[in-house]
Amino acid sequence: MEQRYANCWRLTVNEKKFIESSLLSELRVDGRGSLEYRKLSIKFGKDNGSAEVQLGETRVMSFVSAELVQPYKDRPNEGTLSIFTEFSPMADPSFEPGRPGESAVELGRIIDRGLRESRAIDTESLCVLSAKLVWAIRIDIHILDNAGNLVDAANIAALASLSTFRRSECSLGGEDGQQVVVHPPEVREPLPLIIHHLPVAVTFGFFSNENLVVLDPTYHEEAVMTGSMTVTLNANGDVCAIQKPGRQGIFQRVIMHCLKLAHVKAADITTKIIDAVEKHNIQREVQKVKRHSNCFTD
């Protein structure tokens, strides 16, 4: 993503040299090892399908919503999935207000590619009435603080919010059986999305020294690195997508090494997402029981 290189002016020449020399000594400014991830935190909002992820000092929020629309003519029995990103100047002064820039669009494309090409979401289950009505799922991603590696943080936020999203249940009625009835949550329990697997993005940073590779680059490391690669794969090790911006070449052995590391990290992140979602669902059920209990006591 070119946004990473737009911030280079903030670092002096001495600062850049210090970061590079530290990396050559297998030290990072924040004290991590070269292949160590920052602390990951996943929180959920009150509404279904809202999540906030903090990766180190990077913070991203994601919201999932749905509406009934006409399907595409070439896919009459499939719902749709779309991703929109917002880069606020409050998250980073270099982000410009207004319409999404190239970096925001590219971020959305990376996440979309991992979800869509791996068919992680069962879009056929989103069909309500063939060739007439399907659910259109929309993911809105908001960057709250940019401290580096927005791709991984935004991807995790999208997966977490998708995992907790619930859509209204529909049924067909009327004399011809073609009238769609959308049931409110008070009448019928909303339905979760059918998610086959979680495509997790893992990003590596490369530097002028081809043997120097870091996992989860920070904001300052992004300003110094000469290239990057994001590998999206699931816990089974299936590669869903690979994104390598820039023209710098990468040796095959380095790519294979990164794939092995990404597999281990993706499995670890998947476990953390699943655990956080399960804990959230349990808390939600407890709150639901308490509300019903209060209704009876009143």
Question: What would you say this structure looks like, in words?
Answer:
There is one protein chain. The protein has helices at 13-24, 102-117, 150-164, 219-224, 252-297; strands at 40-44, 50-55, 58-69, 80-87, 127-129, 133-145, 166-167, 170-173, 179-182, 191-192, 200-206, 213-215, 227-233, 239-243. With 298 residues, it is α+β, with helices and mostly antiparallel strands. The model is unreliable at 1-9 (pLDDT under 50). Helix 3 runs parallel beside helix 5 (252-297). The protein is elongated and about 75 Å long. It is built from five helices and 14 strands. It has a single domain (3-288), classed as GHMP Kinase, N-terminal domain (Ribosomal Protein S5, domain 2). Helix content is 32%, strand content 27%. The strands form four sheets. Strands 1, 2, 3, 4, 5 and 6 form a six-stranded mixed β-sheet that branches. Strands 12-11-13-14 form a four-stranded antiparallel β-sheet.
